Amino acid sequence: MSAVARSPLSSVFLLHIALEAPLALHAFWSPQSLLFLQMNNTTLIMLKLYGALIAGSCVTAFLAYPLPEFLPGKRALAIGFCIYHSVVSTILFQAPRFIPLSLGSLFESMNVTPEVVWGAFHGVLGLAMIVWWQGTLQYAAAVRGAAS
């Protein structure tokens, strides 16, 4: 059995796990200790549900990481992650302050808040999913060409 070439760009799936897993675990097991403003019972339940959802996405990313680049399921997952991270980034950029932490007066004067930084990480990861997609097109094309 020959080994299928895998792109180093697949590490983007591991970056998804690195960004999402801490919040997933924290939100699922101890949402009341997260530093978010104005939390009530409803938001605690929603955080637990969101934690379960992103924990599932982390498991999916972990399982997809070693798969060959040309598989439609892996490519569909990457597009789904791209949409997810792009939407989350937009929401966080437009959100009012809900994390009662400051990065210091210099950053505050430049409107760099924890929400904006968090949104930037999501935006970069959404862009990284597009880079993975474009960078692995030749794998899918090669398999499609070999099948014809």
Description:
The structure is a single chain. The protein is mainly alpha-helical. The chain is built from six helices and no strands. It has helices spanning 11-29, 41-64, 72-94, 105-109, 114-135, 137-147.
Topology of helices and strands:
Blueprint (H helix, E strand, L loop, with lengths): L10 H19 L11 H24 L7 H23 L10 H5 L4 H22 L1 H11 L1
Supply the key terms.
148 residues, 6 helices, single chain, mainly alpha, elongated
Work out the radius of gyration.
18 Å
Strand content: under 5%
Number of helices: 6
Overall average pLDDT: 90
What shape does the CA trace take?
Answer: elongated
SS content category: mainly alpha
Query: Multimeric state of these chains?
Result: single chain
What is the string of SSEs from the N terminus onward?
A: HHHHHH
Sheet with most strands? none
Low-confidence stretches: none
Number of strands: 0
Helical content band:
over 70%
Separation, N- and C-terminal Cα atoms: 21 Å
Write a brief structural summary.
The protein is mainly α and 148 residues long. The protein has helices spanning 11-29, 41-64, 72-94, 105-109, 114-135, 137-147.
